[in-house]
Design goal:
This protein has 137 residues and is α/β, with parallel strands linked by helices. The protein has one domain (2-135): 5'-nuclease (Rossmann fold), CATH 3.40.50. Helices cover 60% and strands 13% of the residues. The chain contains seven helices and five strands, in the order E-H-H-E-H-H-E-H-H-E-E-H. The protein has a five-stranded parallel β-sheet with strand order 3-2-1-4-5, sandwiched between helices. The longest helix has 15 residues, at 18-32.
Length: 137
């Protein structure tokens, strides 16, 4: 199973955000052991760096990006993906980019805590808890 992790899920793991870590960590482990392929968009990497730098400093932000590059499958965001996202005309362009990128790369599900941003997704949208149940972890 290939899943696209929304930026908030990646940040939950990297910044060890305790409120959501219990649901996100088993997904990360499932990726590390090959039970699933966890993906993130290339554009999410800039958000991961920005938020990590703001909350934990430059060194931790650089480490976060390195972990992402070593651990996740980073999906390209090109002009076709951006045009597809723009055509969605949704209220949150970032979410539309995530959806368009997931569609372009044959992802099975988008994993997020922000269901409102993915209402119009043709791809299944699951919470981290729902994915954990699906994986039996």
């Amino acid at each position: 199973m290939r899943v696209l992790l929304d930026t908030n899920i990646v940040l939950d793991i990297l910044l060890r955000r305790s409120e959501w870590l219990a649901d996100a960590e088993p997904i990360w482990q499932a990726n590390l052991t090959g039970r699933l392929v966890a993906c993130a968009t290339a554009s999410a990497m800039t958000d991961v760096f920005y938020v990590s730098r703001r909350l934990a400093g430059v060194a931790r932000a650089r480490d976060a990006i390195l972990v992402c590059l070593d651990t996740l499958t980073v999906l390209p965001v090109n002009q076709a993906v951006l045009l597809s996202a723009f055509a969605r005309n949704g209220p949150d362009f970032e979410d539309d980019v995530q959806i368009a990128c997931a569609e372009a790369n044959g992802v099975d599900a988008i994993i997020t805590r922000d269901f409102d941003g993915y209402i119009r997704s043709a791809i299944s949208v699951l919470s981290p808890g729902q994915l954990r149940v699906h994986l039996g972890v």
